[in-house]
Each structure stands twice: as structure tokens, then as C-alpha cells.
Amino acid sequence: MERPLRAVSSPLTVAVLTLLAERPRHPYDMKVTLRERHIAATVKMRGGSLYDTIARLERAGLLTATETSRAGARPERTVYAITEAGRKTLRELISEFIGEPINEYPRFVAGLAHLAVLTPAEAATLLRRRADHLAAEAERVTQEIAVAVEVLPRVVLLEIEYAQRMRECEIDWLRHTATDIENGHIAWPEPETPSSPVQKENNP
């Protein structure tokens, strides 16, 4: 029975299957390679999430264990290889991720939708604070990219390039919008004043 695509659809699934499409690997090798390629910028890996994903993909028939080895006193390492079903699923997932935009409902956009709850000064301050955080992150990533391009082909760093460009665009938008708010170029609703309770007339 074919496993529905949605059941294994995640960025970490794509990362694992991509690595195995290159060659068989054990989980530690995968973890090191993901770190070297800065995949953490686009894929969340917490605790045993990598091992959980590998187990789920193995149950789905998308990868298979090929051998188990032990080096010295180290724990046993199981080497996994991608299956033909895994290669097919990988291509389908990448096609879906790249070609089909979806609404992801990020927290920031939800906050922007209700920005008028704050005062203009509060809103501008928060937008500039976010821009400063992103600028610090952009500087760090720029240094990492400069090192990575010396040892990795550009094709495996495209997601980092894209994220960095989006980050730079957001910084520019945040700072310009904060300035427009501070200069009064964005209309702001007047705060409502509490209405006095209606006094009921006492009937004789």
C-alpha cells in the first residue's frame, strides 16, 4: 500500500532523502553534513527528530537499513540507503515545495494585522527592534556563507542565499515602515475613550 505523500511531507524528510540520494549514510553522518551545509536555517532538528524521521521513512518504505557497523568502543551505526519509492517521493516533495505556494501563517504577519492595537511609537520601536535582530543574524550568515562557498557547491547553498535575501528585504521594509509611522505617513486610528455608563433615570 502506497504511503500518502502528506504523511511524510516535511523539510526534514526532504533533507534526509536528499542526503541518501547522494549515497548511503548513517544518522551521525547525516547530522554532520546537515550542519556543514547550514540546513539548520531551513530545517528544525530538535532532540531525536532526525532519528524519528529516519524511523518513519523506513516504515514507509522510503529508505532501508543496509548494514550495521561498530568502530572501537563507539555505539553501533546503522547505514541507510534510499529506495526507489524514496527517490520517487523525494522528487514529488521537491516539486511540491518549489512549485506550489501555500499559506504558512507566520506569527509576524499575524502581529502586523493587529499593529494598530499599539501606539505609533510602540509599533515603530518594535519594528526597529526586529530589524536590528535580523541585521545581526544577516551579518552572521554572511560570514558563514563566505566560508561555505569555499568548500561547498553553490547549488547546496541556494536556500541559504534565498533566506538571506528575504532577510535583507525584510530589514529594509521594517526600517522604512518604522520611519513612515514616526513621520505620520501611515494613518493611525484614534484611541477610543471609555464611554460613561448610561445613568438610568429613577422613575418616581
Account of the protein in words:
The chain has seven helices and two strands; from the N terminus they run αααββαααα. It is mainly alpha-helical and 204 residues long. It has two domains: 11-99, Orthogonal Bundle (Arc Repressor Mutant, subunit A), CATH 1.10.10.10; 107-183. A two-stranded antiparallel ribbon has the order 1-2. β1 and β2 form a beta hairpin. The mean pLDDT is 87. It holds the Pfam family PadR. This is PadR family transcriptional regulator.
Q: How many separate domains?
A: 2
- CA distance, first residue to last residue: 82 Å
Q: How would you state the average pLDDT, rounded?
A: 87
Count of individual beta strands: 2
Q: In CATH, what is the homologous superfamily of the largest domain? A: Winged helix-like DNA-binding domain superfamily/Winged helix DNA-binding domain
CATH topology descriptor of the largest domain: Arc Repressor Mutant, subunit A
Give the structural class. mainly alpha
**Largest sheet geometry:** 2 strands, antiparallel
Point out poorly predicted stretches.
Answer: none
Radius of gyration: 25 Å
Q: What percentage of residues falls in helices of 4 or more residues?
A: 40-55%
CATH class of the largest domain: Mainly Alpha
Given the structure, what is the number of helices? 7
Net shape: elongated
The helix-strand sequence is HHHEEHHHH
CATH architecture of the largest domain: Orthogonal Bundle
InterPro entries: Tscrpt_reg_PadR_N, WH-like_DNA-bd_sf, WH_DNA-bd_sf
Organism: Nocardia wallacei
Biased composition (Polar residues): 193-204
Domain Transcription regulator PadR N-terminal: 16-92
